[in-house]
Amino acid sequence: MTENNPFATGNQYSMGSPQVTVGNGAAAPAAGDLVKDTSTAGFAADVIQESRRQPVLVDFWAPWCGPCKQLTPVLEKAVKAAGGAVKLVKMNIDEHPSIAGQLGIQSIPAVIAFRDGQPVDGFMGAVPESQVQEFIRKLGGAGNGAAQIAEALAAATEARGAGDAQTAAAIYEAVLEQAPETIEAIAGLAELSLEAGDTEGAKAALAAVPEAKRDAPALAAVRARMALAEQAASLGNPAELEERLANDPKDHQARFDLSMIQNTLGERDKAADNLLAIVKADRGWKDDGARNQLLQFFEAWGMTDEATLAARRKLSSLLFS
Question: Which one is catalytic: 57, 68, 93, 228?
């Protein structure tokens, strides 16, 4: 994209505003800081200085710009998928016009890539996602080092925490393109499939696991979740189970089945409490079946999950008090 590009190497710009200064010593960006907004005052630290560590894309936009609204989500997704190899800094030219003016930007959206404190490449307009990905790749955002993979996985975790499954999946897929045996990415994709109700997709993701890594703990947790989901799918209507319990609180089978469904719905605390209620009322029911199922929940949820920790404390109190 450097052909006929006013931002390519060789074009030097003077950052003449007294608010723009260059310094050193800022910490490298964390995975959660891959995308941020900046101002005229923050441009030197967020762009000039930061570009000495890794390339920084600057998205010049405005609230009234329709194509900007199309491009920005594409940029954010692609930068997160690059896993820390590049950063995206967004600048509202209505609020901060001076930098865009100094760079000669006359139309938006405009994206300029900075490296080593200088603009080195760029493009204008709402280009397709594939073109954005190629731009980042050529810029140097397709590295496969261990640090970059770790940052990418952290970014995927953050995206999932924010409810952005699409971005998380894109990041996992980008990681697997570079390092196909990354267990965390395989497990992440399988979990996203399960959360979307796509059991076959989860199975397909796990099928890509190398034989030598099939017993990895992260994969065991996914398989446990898959087994629970398949088991719960045949248990019926939770409202009917709750009605049975209202009529007979000692209907342990109804309580057990309800717990399985609650787990599938993500209601982990309720699922655990129902199994604990069975353990308290009748430890020997179905050969200690409620406790055994609770232990299976722990494996599926993970040993450090809040629901696991809380239920384990309650179980210990029941068994040893």
Answer: 68
Whole-structure pTM over 0.70, yes or no?
no
Q: Could you give the angle at the alpha carbon of 102 between the alpha carbons of 9 and 111, nearest 5°?
A: 60
Q: Which residue has the higher pLDDT, 49 or 144?
A: 49
Q: Which residue bears the tokens 């629970």?
A: 228
Q: How many CB atoms lie within 10 A of CB 207?
A: 9
Place of tokens 């950052």: 15
Catalytic pick from 20, 35, 57, 65?
A: 65
Average pLDDT over residues 13-18: 28
HSE at residue 129, side-chain half, CA atoms within 13 A, is 10
| Residue 140 contacts residue 55 (beta carbons within 8 Å) | yes
Q: Among this protein's residues, is 65 annotated catalytic? A: yes
Sign, CA dihedral 37-40-45-48, equals: positive
Q: How many CB atoms lie within 10 A of CB 245?
A: 17
At residue 26, the pLDDT reads: 35
CA distance 238 to 244: 10
- Sign (positive or negative) of CA dihedral 178, 182, 185, 191: positive
68 catalytic per annotation? yes
